[in-house]
Amino acid sequence: MAKKVAVIGAGVSGLISLKCCVDEGLEPTCFERTEDIGGLWRFKENVEDGRASIYQSVITNTSKEMSCFSDFPMPEDFPNFLHNSKLMKYFRIFAENFDLLKYIQFQTIVLSVKKCPDFPSSGQWKVVTQSHGKEQSAIFDAVMVCSGHHIIPHIPLKSFPGIEKFKGQYFHSRQYKHPDGFEGKRILVIGTGNSASDIAVELSKKAAQVFISTRHGAWVLSRISEDGYPWDQVFHTRFKSMLRNILPRTVVKWMMQEQMNKWFNHENYGLEPQNKYLMKEPVLNDDLPSRLLYGAIKVKSRVKELTETSAIFEDETVEEDIDVIVFATGYTFSFPFLEESLVKVENNMISLYKYIFPPHLEKSTLACIGLIQPLGSIFPTVELQARWVTRVFKGLCSLPSEDTMLADIIERTKKKIDLFGESLSQTLQTNYVDYLDELALEIGAKPSFGFLLLTDPQLAVKLYFGPCNSYQYRLVGPGKWEGARDAIFTQKQRILKPLKTRTLKPSSSSPVSSLLTILGLFAVVVAFLFQLQWF
Ligand code: FAD
Ligand code: NAP
């Protein structure tokens, strides 16, 4: 009999978990507290309790070809970075294509998940739900927690002495919807994450003046990279990831700083990170530097104190007549439906094996999906998590001993702090390609370059030097997709298609490109041999 799996939440993580359950022949039931799919990407004018809330203008900061699920490329004509409404369209066609809606119980909130009371060591779970005021319970063989982590606002009022005297308006970025009503105001935005930067830029077009207060600074990247391609197509290649892993740290640090300052000098703009060698999540914002050049936004240091109408900063400068403060200070998370002993959250840190499995369960039948912040897109990341988890539930993959898992968690946390620092915003941060490969290895879906070099060298070159997209994990192993190779080779076409809105005469191809392919092939052989020596 097929194992029954409860999936909590129908956002990105929940949808892909449903698909993976179906692919593995499991029997899923998804509980979604709201009336629709999409999670945080479904914009609403009002803020809802228990669900993430976005502003009307949110556009993805990871590109469509790096954000689609591995056997379902986004439509050719979709733009490369998607407005939230467009991404919702993708979720809808994805759900329809794989017939996922029939598994979802909408307007059903999960109240509790407890070990099956009659057989606590069976690995089964009693899930209590509430729908239209009516409580129900059912027993499941496994649970996938997909409830998101951008729901509870982190609003550190204690770090802002004088806030109680402040006479203007203040709120968390979660409350921000659009710039209407802020015309002519003097606005202070706290934080330099992606929310702070987006909101500051948008408000600066209507406000009298916007200030952005940063305590540690940030690297700001454009969505547009080399030759006009999306940044993540260029940044997330296996070759670059390999270089970051094998080169001495000082060289990597130097290279990173050079790369980040290519677009503009962060020191000149007052944005240079305090610890510039951390790999903290960059801000993706095409307009922020120009708004700074126009003087529409001014960068300030950490707020030392607030008065009734003004803000005093760490460097003793003062800005008077502040009307509004936006706390774009990130999020904390919790799992109100789980007992603390199952998944304990402390200072936004969580002890999960590979960010997924609580290590101390008798049976590995509970998993968290999407409780992570990869340096690349979360979509392929949660897909690989769900592919692995469903195979663990099915008994096709197994986890190591509790001690091994605990040791891995400690080691990973150390590395994470070393790479990304200890800020609250970085507690779920991970490398991208390395983490994807690690998960793919668990299910036998990591492509073998040695083999490909001999059998399909053209593909090997693409895989090594091209963008590390999700299709790469459908070339081999369980869930192999016949269209994967073609999707890799037609990627450029889908990137360029939405830009081809004006007919131009085709330009002739140059012989240099053939030479580059040969050189690329040579380099991949060298890189492969080089790697062999290291393992
Ligand atoms: P959510 O989208 O939050 O979905 C969780 C779902 O669970 C919701 O539908 C909620 O109603 C439901 N739920 C919660 N509790 C319960 C319960 N007790 N019972 C039943 N249902 C419940 N990542 C990227 O890779 N690229 C981007 O461009 C990007 N942009 C972002 C922009 C913003 C503004 C933010 C905040 C994040 C962004 N992220 C991005 C990261 C983001 O976390 C992911 O894109 C993704 O949406 C997370 O999906 P999720 O399904 O894990 O969580
Ligand atoms: P975030 O990334 O956690 O950033 C929070 C910011 O607040 C950081 O700059 C942090 O500074 C600052 N901060 C926190 N506590 C503070 C304090 N006590 N005093 C002063 N500053 C403080 O939160 P976010 O920007 O809301 O982003 C959340 C996630 O959503 C991220 O993954 C982000 O990429 C994503 N997102 C994406 C988009 C998009 O795609 N367009 C838009 C918005 C958000 P420190 O760095 O110094 O800790």
Explain the overall architecture.
It is built from 16 helices and 24 strands. The two termini are 42 Å apart. The protein has helices at 12-23, 64-67, 84-97, 194-204, 231-235, 238-246, 249-260, 288-294, 378-394, 402-420, 433-443, 449-455, 457-465, 484-489, 491-496, 511-534; strands spanning 4-8, 27-31, 104-105, 108-115, 125-131, 134-140, 142-145, 152-153, 169-172, 186-190, 209-213, 220-221, 283-284, 297-300, 303-306, 311-313, 318-319, 324-327, 331-332, 345-346, 349-350, 366-368, 373-374, 429-430. It is globular, with a radius of gyration of 24 Å. A hairpin with a 2-residue loop joins strand 5 and strand 6. 32% of the residues lie in helices and 16% in strands. It is of the alpha/beta class. The strands form 8 sheets. A 5-stranded parallel beta sheet has the order 3-2-1-7-22, with helices on one face. The relative contact order is 0.13. The mean pLDDT is 93. Helix 1 (12-23) packs parallel to helix 9 (378-394), helix 12 (449-455) packs across helix 13 (457-465) and helix 13 packs across helix 16 (511-534). The protein folds into 3 domains: 4-151 and 332-439, FAD/NAD(P)-binding domain; 155-222 and 263-329, 3-Layer(bba) Sandwich (FAD/NAD(P)-binding domain); 447-495 and 511-534, no CATH class. The site of flavin-adenine dinucleotide (FAD) has 34 residues, from helix 1, strand 4 and helix 9.
